[in-house]
Write a structure and sequence with these properties.
The protein is mainly beta. About 10% of the residues lie in helices and about 35% in strands. The chain contains three helices and 29 strands.
């Protein structure tokens, strides 16, 4: 049973939703769900979802192991993603182009300004000076900024929406692995180190910046066996612990005005703050694997073995969710020019993947979502790390022809862990003509 895997199974990981990006800009036309088996994409506001396989999004590179790209949506609906070998983009779900300035660099994160006019990326190459890269939305040609920072491996990058030029970045020391935080007030050219007292924090993952106050930012951290949310209201000089979860705090989201903040985990469900992140209360028992607020709608990835969807959305602040993506409803690749090899390969793989997704959906034993339940307000929170990427269980090496057996053990499926996720934001317009198509 443990050898049940087909060659299309991508990394051999349990099918899990990791992150969702919605855009472009204030619109919600394009929805990108990052999963452990590629990208699941809608270009019609969620009416239909198509699959982009890893062979397509990384082509012509052949990547092995667990690769979980950072994703952004451009102002024209192009999907931009950063990964250990650079930045690729797809304007239509079919074509793939790459940016020459980022080739062979590990791109740890992507973000944009609120208008989508500019896209930012950050490198994380060992043994090198790492830089912020910036692209104008009209051409999407990235340029490397400033002198960079040596001795730091970056993990996250975010823009202060209300102050032009302000960015924050998080990472860790390459030598000591201690958490590091940086701020830029010149559009990413210069990164100034911050030295706040983070208490017993083992790491610091930048999670978001208040859209209306550039000095308010949030950091998630593994702290003494628990996951904590830290808040700063002075530009990262000092932080206060405002919440924690028993499980990995995989979800974080901010409302457009910064007044409402959501956090969540698979174990703790969904919690919400209505006082700008100063205090939190349970709002829903939904097992939460990712969160994003966009244009007044809260989006959440969930554990489909315990709820009847992998992606849902809420229009009442998280009290209830409607299903958006169920694995059994995902369509195959986009209809593309038959001369494009990436979609052709996805087409070859799709029947096997579709069969597997249907089998695990049937075996998952999902139940209807119960009404929101209250948690013990005194329950101790916080357990687990939040490195970028995602979890999932490897159920054996790839073996062509074994799709009929794949993932057949319901108990094993239900025991698979959902470990890591990242929050990334959606962003700008691209011009694939300025890049290198293939």
């Amino acid at each position: 049973m443990l050898l049940a895997a087909a060659d299309a199974r991508a990394n051999g990981r349990f099918p899990t939703a990791q992150d969702v990006v919605v855009g472009p800009g204030p619109r919600s036309d394009v929805i990108v769900l990052r999963t452990t088996f590629g990208l699941v994409v809608s270009r019609d506001a969620g009416a239909t979802f198509h699959w982009m396989c890893e062979a397509q999004i990384y082509r012509p590179l052949f990547l092995t192991g667990e690769v979980d790209p950072s994703v952004a949506v451009a102002a024209d609906g192009s999907i931009v993603f950063g990964f250990p070998q650079g930045i690729h983009l797809s304007p239509d779900g079919c074509q793939i182009a790459r940016d020459p300035a980022a080739m062979n660099h590990h791109i740890a994160d992507l973000t944009t300004d609120p208008t989508g006019a500019r896209l930012f990326a950050i490198e994380s190459d060992p043994g090198m000076s790492n830089h912020i890269l910036r692209a104008d939305a009209r051409s999407l040609r990235f340029e490397r900024l400033g002198a960079g920072v040596s001795g730091v491996m970056f993990t996250n990058l975010d823009v202060a929406a209300s102050r032009p030029g302000r960015l924050y970045a998080s990472g860790f020391s390459a030598d000591t692995r201690s958490p590091r935080l940086f701020r830029s007030d010149d559009d990413g050219v210069t990164l100034v180190p911050l030295a706040p007292d983070l208490g017993p924090a083992d790491d610091a993952w930048l999670s978001g910046v208040d859209p209306t106050d550039p000095d308010v930012l949030y950091v998630r951290s593994y702290m003494g066996g628990g996951t904590a949310l830290l808040r700063s209201d002075d530009g990262g000089q000092r932080f206060t612990r405002v919440a924690s979860t028993r499980g990995s705090m995989l979800g974080f989201a901010l409302s457009d005005d910064g007044r409402t903040v959501w956090i969540g985990s698979a174990e703790d469900g969904l919690l919400r703050s209505d006082d700008r992140g100063r205090s939190f209360a349970p709002v829903n028992s939904l097992p939460t694997l990712c969160l994003r607020q966009h244009a007044g709608v809260l989006w959440a990835c969930s554990d489909w073995t315990r709820r009847p969807f992998a992606l849902g959305r809420s229009r009442d602040g998280g009290r209830s969710f409607e299903p958006v993506v169920r694995w059994g409803d995902v369509a195959g690749p986009f209809t593309c020019d038959p001369g494009l090899m990436g979609p052709v390969v996805c087409g070859w793989q799709w029947p096997s993947v579709q069969d597997q997704l249907q089998r695990v959906a049937d075996a998952g034993g999902v139940v209807k979502e119960p009404p929101p339940v209250a948690f013990d307000a005194g329950a101790r929170a916080g357990d687990a790390r939040m490195p970028p990427g995602a979890g999932g269980c490897a159920i054996g090496a790839a073996r062509p022809g074994s799709a009929a057996i794949g993932w057949c053990v319901t108990g094993l499926l239900l025991l698979c862990s959902r470990r890591r996720a990242r929050a990334h934001s959606a962003r700008p317009r691209t011009s694939p003509r300025s890049l290198q198509p293939f």
